[in-house]
Amino acid sequence: MLVKATLKSDDGVPPLEFMFNPAELAFEGVVDTAESPGSRTEETGQPKVSFANVKAYTVTISQVMFDTYEERTDVVQRYIEPFRKAVQFVSGKQRPPIYTLMWGKQIYLRRCFVEKLSYKLTLFLPDGTPVRAVIDNLTLKEADEPKPNGSLAATAPTAADRQNDSIPARQNAAR
Question: Where are the domains of the chain?
């Protein structure tokens, strides 16, 4: 029995649900490094490596199929459009929706966003209505936890805020 995978969001967007039975889920974690060719170890002559940072994990889900042939309805409107909205910014926020990736009882990413969506339409009715779509790649990228002060939803300072911030600097410069 197939169990739906769900991308659930607290951003007020509907959850994304899809049936799939993957042969694999591809996870990728990367540590950024920098090598200095002029700085080498004396014993082996290998370049010294500096560790810069750890990049966010990504999960790639492939070959998710949606079919509305029997209902003869538009597969894009019914299934693909919510995924397309997942790669747009949330109204009032300067970021896309944040999701939790769940499949069955397993949580694969607690906080993530859709970094990449690649799909194709593969079957059409005689009138041109698309009735089958395949998501080739859905790449989810891990997102950090929000800061306690809510900085993920912070707004840009106003002109008055900037002016008030610069008053002490002007007062100190006048002294």
Answer: 4-30+53-170
List CB contacts of 128: < 8 A, sequence separation 6 or more: none
Tell me the pLDDT tens digit for each residue of 145-175: 877 765 555 455 555 554 544 444 444 444 4
Contact between 97 and 9 (Cβ < 8 Å) = yes
The pair of structure tokens assigned to 153 is 């939803």
Output the DSSP codes for 74-114.
Answer: -HIIIIIHHHHHTTSPPTTSSSPPPEEEEETTEEEEEEEEE
Average pLDDT, the chain: 84
Cα-Cα-Cα-Cα dihedral sign, residues 129, 135, 139, 143: positive
Task: Tally Cβ neighbours within 10 Å of residue 39.
Answer: 10
Structure tokens at 165: 């911030």
